[in-house]
Amino acid sequence: MNDLKNLKCLLPNTETLLLKMVDGCDFLDQYVLVGGSALSMHLCHRKSEDLDFFTYDDSFDKQKIFAYIQTFKNKEILHQTDEQVDVLLDGVKVTFFNAQWAFLKPMTIKKFNLSSLEDIAAMKV
Questions:
Q1: Chain-centroid distance, C-alpha 60
Q2: Are 89 and 74 in contact (CB under 8 A)?
Q3: Domains and CATH numbers, the chain
Q4: pTM score, two decimals?
Q5: What's 111's DSSP letter?
Q6: Beta bridge partners of 10
Q7: Residue 117: which H helix or E strand, with range?
Q8: pLDDT digit string (tens) for 13-69?
Q9: C-alpha dist (Å) from residue 82 to 50, 60, 71
């Protein structure tokens, strides 16, 4: 899978937001999409509703994240720590997290990285 055809496995608002982020978020290539949405893009077993992005090279930069958030008309910061920012963008929950670990085999799809099934399984153990 190296294209965006499996975006249809996301809820419509989530798909729209991810496409917007692919086009407009200049740091998205430093993150890996993980969790339920990543699994859904692999298996298409359900419609997923949120986006979880983890850094894979310790490139977590809250200033860049907050600057990007400000480009949205509909935004709400839900929670933040030194290592995580949870936000609603256009009604979709998005998490940016400083994972500080390497991913096994992330796949690059357009301008973002998708965690492998092996990585998703390792995160759930």
A1: 13
A2: yes
A3: 5-124 (3.30.460.40)
A4: 0.89
A5: T
A6: 48
A7: helix 117-124
A8: 999 999 999 999 999 999 999 988 998 888 888 888 999 999 866 789 999 999 999
A9: 21, 9, 22
